[in-house]
Design brief:
With 533 residues, the protein is of the alpha/beta class. It has 16 helices and 22 strands. It has 4 domains: 136 residues, no CATH class; 106 residues, no CATH class; 117 residues; 144 residues, Rossmann fold, CATH 3.40.50. Helix 1 packs parallel to helix 2, helix 9 packs across helix 10 and helix 13 runs parallel beside helix 16. The termini are far apart.
Length: 533
């Protein structure tokens, strides 16, 4: 039994291939006592250097094995593992090699299987027999398979909308940019080559995918030559399939957006540590607004973009200018948004105190919805397609009396660093100032803790109710705010601020601790900003 991996039965592939059908049958009996699967997958790499047999449940890899058998015994082995109502799938990781290190990890093999789903097809028993026979014979088909049918050409043209599908291109292929001539300047290119001995050719797949529109890209001349002649090795089938899928996803989102309400969108980009912040691209704007079922009206309004005065001025000068800078930006947004029933989007980025103060100046009597600059994705987008609901709680409210003049409030959404917690504990011990904390569930902690704009609006409502409670029930007149939150969450927090709320001192990280940066107060009529000290 040692030959069939009694220690690691779910990954027999870390051991030598099974060389006897009886051992395969014994391994099957062992595996089915500890795993459930329905389908069998055959995974090969470039040049068929490695072949893995995968046991699949709901498309996920649950176990691996290898065998070295005759053609007929190989077919019988796969039939043994296939469940009664299951299927056989054949997939190829073209342009890549399955290394020993990868084979030792079921998780890595599962990731490969998910990545190549466009190079995975149903196989019949006869297909399996033909494949193993050709492996044994070493036969490679020469020449191209069937040419594109009219239906395939039409399907690819409709999917591309006449644009180059290469990532970052999108060139109009019905118009020559150099001569201004109208015509058809498009090229059809296979992801998996039509010929097995061509670039990206795959034994057992090329013929079956030759006329499949999902295996075809529409490209401009430059990018057609790039993937086939200039740098074919850099563009394996899996990468081209992903490129096609992402192109179609983007186009679909943009077209769906035509049915959405057009609203204005504003950008407030304050330099961060003297570094310029890039505004969102048109695609990023469309993706962000789609989450609130809106689309951009005309163009993005840049209220301020990496103002050189702010970027180059000494920090003490910037601090003095901060209330006016924030106030002018808020006023410009409110005035321009007013003609659109006050519904608009805001792409704002800068230091946390500035963003919280900007939200406070904008207020909550309009519908100005902040957008997220998602750090993990490196762009302006929302990580969740649907609202998650409240994933955070407030800790420490039960310790407050009805006579707390001031409290510290830690907002731990992107992280829960030690610095604000230490400051809060020291104040509690030295001054009797109690501390409360808004803490997100650990699985959501990060830049995308508020992952959908509706969750952001709910967060604003939650903060508004919390500040009301602090003032009305606990007599709090001043809140020392220690934020650790995304750009969107900061603006949402500020928008929660309302009349009769306590004064808020917003802190930020400085070398050695945290210091107050700006004071937010409300005289009952409007929100006011002032410097600390």
């Amino acid at each position: 039994m040692s030959d069939i991996s009694s220690v690691f039965p779910l990954n027999q592939a870390i051991h030598p291939p099974l060389e006897d059908l009886a051992l395969v049958e014994a391994h099957l009996r062992l595996t089915q006592t500890i795993a459930t699967w329905s389908d069998v997958g055959v995974l090969v790499d470039e040049g068929n250097k490695a072949t893995l047999i995968l046991l699949l449940q709901n498309g996920n890899v649950v176990a691996l094995l290898r065998f070295c058998l005759s053609v007929e015994e190989s077919v019988k082995a796969i039939e043994l593992f296939k469940r009664a109502s299951g299927k056989i799938f054949f997939g190829a990781w073209q342009g890549n090699e399955l290394t020993t290190e990868m084979i030792h990890s079921t998780e890595q093999i599962d990731q490969v299987w998910q990545d190549i789903h466009a190079q995975v097809i149903d196989y019949s028993t006869e297909d399996v027999r033909n494949y193993f026979q050709r492996i044994e014979d070493g036969s490679i088909q020469s020449g191209r398979n069937a040419p594109f049918t009219t239906a395939t050409k039409r399907a690819v043209m409709l999917a591309s909308h006449g644009r180059c599908m290469f990532e970052g291109c999108g060139e109009n292929l019905g118009f020559d940019q150099l001569t201004g001539t109208e015509g058809n300047f498009a090229y059809l290119a296979h992801n998996v080559a039509s010929s097995e001995n061509g670039p990206r050719g795959i034994m057992g797949l090329s013929e079956k995918l030759s006329d499949d529109p999902n295996n075809v890209l529409l490209l401009c001349d430059k990018h057609h030559r790039l993937i086939d002649k200039v740098a074919a090795a850099d563009y394996p089938a899996e990468r081209l399939s992903r490129m096609r899928r992402e192109f179609c996803d983007i186009v679909e989102r943009l077209l769906v957006g035509l049915g959405y309400q057009p609203i204005p969108a504003f950008a407030v980009l304050w330099p961060f540590n003297k570094q310029s912040i890039s505004p969102p691209s048109s695609v990023q704007v469309a993706q962000s607004l789609a989450k609130i079922q809106a689309r951009l009206n005309q163009q993005l309004h840049i209220v301020t973009e990496n103002d050189e005065t702010i970027r180059n001025a000494p920090s003490d000068v910037i601090v003095k200018l901060l209330p006016d800078i924030i106030g002018h930006a808020a006023e410009a947004i409110r005035m321009q948004a007013g003609g659109y029933k006050q519904r608009s989007a805001l792409f704002a980025f800068g230091l946390m105190p500035s963003l919280i103060a900007l939200g406070a100046k904008l207020g909550n009597k309009n519908e100005i919805i902040p957008m997220l600059r998602y750090r993990d994705g490196g762009q302006w987008t929302w990580p969740s397609d649907v609202p998650r609901g409240r994933t955070y709680e407030t800790i420490g409210l039960e310790d407050l009396t009805d006579n707390e003049s001031e409290v510290t409030l830690i907002v731990a959404l992107t992280a829960d660093p030690e610095v604000p917690n230490t400051v809060a504990r020291n104040w509690t011990m030295a001054k009797g100032v109690k501390s409360i904390k808004i803490l997100v569930d650990s699985q959501f902690m990060g830049n995308g803790a508020i992952g959908h704009p509706k969750d952001g609006v709910d967060f604003m409502t939650y903060i508004q109710a919390l500040l009301h409670r602090l003032a009305d029930k606990h007599g709090v007149r001043r809140v020392h705010l220690f934020p650790c939150a995304s750009n969107a969450a900061c603006v949402f927090f500020g928008q929660a601020y309302d009349k009769h709320h306590p004064e808020i001192l917003v802190y930020d990280f400085v070398p050695g601790g945290m210091e107050p940066q700006i004071r937010i107060t409300n005289d009952g009529a409007s929100c006011s900003l002032s410097l600390i000290g």
